[in-house]
Amino acid sequence: xxxxxxxxxxxxxxxxxxxxxxxxxxxxxxxxxxxxxxxxxxxxxxxxxxxxxxxxxxxxxxxxxxxxxxxxxxxxxxxxxxxxxxxxxxxxxxxxxxxxxxxxx
Length: 105
Known about the structure:
The protein is α+β, with helices and mostly antiparallel strands.
């Protein structure tokens, strides 16, 4: 319930400790989605957001915009097999500010 600029790493960690689950207003992604082989994430390797990843993230944003709004948290790992996804750990993106800038473009 804080403005985005006031959210801290501790607030994000609390989401994991408290076991928040995805719903119609919150979605978790461990990384920028990609179709590459495991360990070959194009963002981590070459700072390249492929069209597939961009489209997957933006489809979530559009779904939120067409309903009640919501928050997409990239860098939050989910408990394996949990449906809906349950936040369990932070999974920091390298160069997150650059990723946010590129997605904003």
